[in-house]
Write a structure and sequence with these properties.
- It is a single chain.
- This protein is α+β, with helices and mostly antiparallel strands.
- The protein has one domain: 2-Layer Sandwich (archaeoglobus fulgidus dsm 4304 fold).
- It contains 5 helices and 9 strands; from the N terminus they run αβββαβαβββββαα.
- It has a 9-stranded mixed sheet with strand order 3-2-1-4-5-9-8-7-6, with helices on both faces.
- It starts with 7 loop residues before the first helix and ends with a helix.
- The model has no long low-confidence stretch (mean pLDDT 94).
Length: 224
């Protein structure tokens, strides 16, 4: 009988899951004191071209939401696309962008999930733990759990439930637009995450820091 060992990719994914679980057990995700005061908030997102990723972080004043600074980093992708392990693919690119900033920030919004993750440790939790900065996860679709549709009015919410637990919230940030899925990240709780998401969205579906980061990432991709 022939016995096959694990492939390199299988070992890579197993190692990533182990890291994720260790960090989850050591870090506070989905709970924390309200960061105060909030003067500068950021949003981070990425775009892709071939085997390269373009990471962007955009900083804004809060509550005024005036642009302060942005930074961009381009890196080769070192991890495959695997749902639930997306932090290992995208986060190195976004952290490289953060390293280029000259301005500090009090909160980071991540285009992805925080506590609303199968292991309760999504990319927003991972980013905050590595940066030591409070984070919020905001995504366009759920990864784990289900929610009802919130009302059409801005500010309407519907709990995102997974295995009997509220892990996030479907939030209508603009009247009639599709909801976004908000979850607490590192050192934040859900009610705070929803409050700041609505405050930073204004008349957009995504909060302005994430909208700005996404727009810049797409612009840089077109130039490459």
């Amino acid at each position: 009988m022939q016995v096959f060992g694990k492939s390199g990719e299988e070992r890579l994914l197993e190692g990533a899951r182990a890291v994720q679980l260790r960090m989850r057990d050591r870090c506070r995700c989905g709970q924390g004191d309200i960061p105060s005061p909030l003067r500068i908030i950021g949003g981070t997102d990425a775009a892709y071209t071939g085997q390269k990723g373009i990471g962007v972080v955009a900083l804004y004043t809060f509550p005024g939401l005036e642009p302060v600074e942005y930074a961009v980093a381009v890196r080769h992708l070192l991890f495959p696309y695997v749902p639930g392990l997306f932090a290992f693919r995208e986060l190195p690119i976004c952290l490289a962008a953060c390293e280029k900033l000259t301005t500090g920030f009090d909160l980071l919004m991540v285009n992805g999930h925080g506590y609303a993750h199968p292991q309760r440790f999504g990319m927003a939790c991972h980013a905050g733990a590595l940066l030591g900065v409070p984070t919020i996860g905001i995504a366009s679709r759920p990864l784990s759990g289900r929610s009802g549709q919130p009302g059409r009015a801005r500010g309407s919410c519907s709990p995102l439930m997974d295995r009997g637990e509220v892990v996030g919230m479907a939030v209508r940030t603009r009247e009639g637009s599709r909801p976004v899925y908000v979850s607490a990240g590192y050192d934040t709780d859900l009610s705070f995450a929803v409050e700041i998401t609505l405050a930073a969205a204004r008349d957009r579906t995504m909060p302005l820091p994430l909208h700005g980061a996404d727009r810049l990432a797409r612009e840089y991709r077109r130039m490459m």
